[in-house]
Amino acid sequence: MEAEKRVASSKKAENNRDKKMTRKEILEKKKKVQEIIKAALSEKDPLSSFPSFHHYSTKDLSVYLDSGRGDYLSSSVKQYIQYLLKVNMEVAYGTEWPKEEKVKRREMVSSEARYIFVYETVNADANIMFKLSKKGRSNADGTDDKGHLVAFVHYRFTIEEEIPVLYVYELQLEQRVQGKGLGKFLMLLIELIAQKSKMSALVLTVQKANMTAIHFYRNKLRYLISTMSPSQMGLQSNYEILCKSFDSETKAVLEVCNPFSLVLNIKPKRTQIRFDISHALKILPRIHASDYCINWSEDNCVQGDSKSVLQSILQSSSMSA
Fold first, then answer.
1. CA–CA distance from 232 to each of 148, 228, 319 (Å)?
2. CA torsion angle 310 311 314 315 (round to 10)
């Protein structure tokens, strides 16, 4: 009996040591994440590391980029940001806009707010205009020596689910410079800044009513719905949270995985085709039930109810075939 107690006591002490190590590891991880954020915030000009992104030109558009901080904004820049936000977002927010506008005004001047400003060059070379911008000429909208402000990105380095992320608060372009590849160019720059700053993911919020933005992020840039999004928590909301992860560990935490995938062994060649749930539902009605057999490939996040639903659909299609 005493021997058993000693063994049990030894195991208990061992388990406690393991728990203490786990706590220590957790604290070390948190400290490391905080240090990453602190280092990112201390960077004076993230844009300086990417000289090829200092300007952008197409046949009918020539702009240069400049960086900024929320607590250093001039009054004219603040006014321009408020103006462009209202023009672009009032309709998408609907009746909630007055409340959201106040929130955005507070957010835009935070010391944690980081900006990429886009100026349209006026009868001058983009490289020259970029150099002029570094001399402290801060008028924003209009035709001063900086050119005309036509777009901006507001982003922050922050922590989500204990992971360091770059959160894009705003990507706003004047309508006349949209559709020219500028938005994609800016998001690529933001992605590079995030990776250089050792962020593990990009995160952003998009209004469900803003179908243009949803198409842009989901289809063109391949962002995925995040596990943090209200829709993934069974909550009713007018927005989705999207993300793009840079490593497998972050993907497992922030990205919504497919409940399961379906492998069809097509006869007679026994060709294997893998589908996720959404594609499976689209393709199955087109295949005769006698021409395939089903194997389930589970990804450690199988939802039994969804699987049962699909199996019922398959059985129905088999009987009707």
1. 41, 7, 34
2. -140
Q: What is the pTM of this model?
A: 0.72
- Find the DSSP H helices in 62-96: 75-93
Closest CA relative to residue 184, chosen from 220, 152, 156: 220
Residue 197 near residue 46 (C-beta atoms within 8 A): yes
Nearest to 255 by CA among 289, 298, 301, 287: 301
How remote is the C-alpha of 138 from its chain's centroid?
A: 30
123: left (phi over 0), alpha (psi -120 to 50) or beta: left
Cα 116 versus chain centre, distance: 17
Q: Report which of 67, 58, 156, 76 is spatially closest to residue 118, judged by C-alpha positions.
A: 67
Q: What residues in the chain have per-residue pLDDT under 70?
A: 1-21, 122-146, 257-321
Residue with tokens 């150099």: 131
CA distances from 157 to 147, 161, 163, 254 (A): 28, 13, 11, 16
Residue 136 near residue 106 (C-beta atoms within 8 A): no
CA-CA distance, 109 to 87, in Å (whole number)?
19
Q: What is the pLDDT of residue 194?
A: 98
